[in-house]
Amino acid sequence: MTSKQLSPVSRQNIATRRDIDNPVLSLWRDTDSFFDSFFGGLDYEPLTLGLMAFNPTIDVTESDKEIRVLAELPGMDEKDINVSLYRDTLMITGEKRAESEQKDKDYHHVERSYGSFSRTIQLPAEAATDKITAELKKGLLTIVLPKSARAAESTRKVKIKVA
């Protein structure tokens, strides 16, 4: 056995004191190393194995009078989207379906993809539930939640003293 065989191959194989103290970090590092060696450094997510998951982008903004939620849902119809509110939690769920078909005299190609999604948003203030609106236009879902009178009353400005 040579001294080269006894030395670590790279610095990432050296366990640090932090890893020894925390078995979760050590397990995480070992699992990452296993998947890196198994996939040969390819840019695949090991748990999805190249499957495409649809997770819409969501923006939440708040003003004095309302909370506005924008969700990017390209290619979806309103019948495939559900919006619900329970207390201070807004939930947007749906199913995206896509199908393409190409025919020629020498081939016939059909491709289908399906996937459901669910996004849950904890609202920063109480909404007036009877005045909520949702509109889907060109793949952009806009949800407007007017703040309740109680939420407006509970907000107050705090004066800062200069020392």
Care to describe what's here?
The strands form 2 sheets. A 4-stranded antiparallel sheet has the order 1-2-7-6, with no helix packed on it. Strands 3-4-5 form a 3-stranded antiparallel sheet, with no helix packed on it. 20% of the residues lie in helices and 37% in strands. The N and C termini lie far apart (70 Å). Residues 1-11 and 44-51 have low confidence and may be disordered. The chain has 163 residues and is α+β, with helices and mostly antiparallel strands. Among the domains are: 3-39, no CATH class; 58-93 and 119-153, Immunoglobulin-like (Sandwich).
Q: Which sheet architecture does the biggest sheet show?
A: 4 strands, antiparallel
- Average residue-wise pLDDT: 77
Q: Could you say what the CATH architecture of the domain at 58-93 and 119-153 is?
A: Sandwich
Q: How many strands?
A: 7
Specify the number of helices.
Answer: 4
Which stretches are poorly predicted, pLDDT < 50 over at least 5 residues?
1-11, 44-51
Helix content: 10-25%
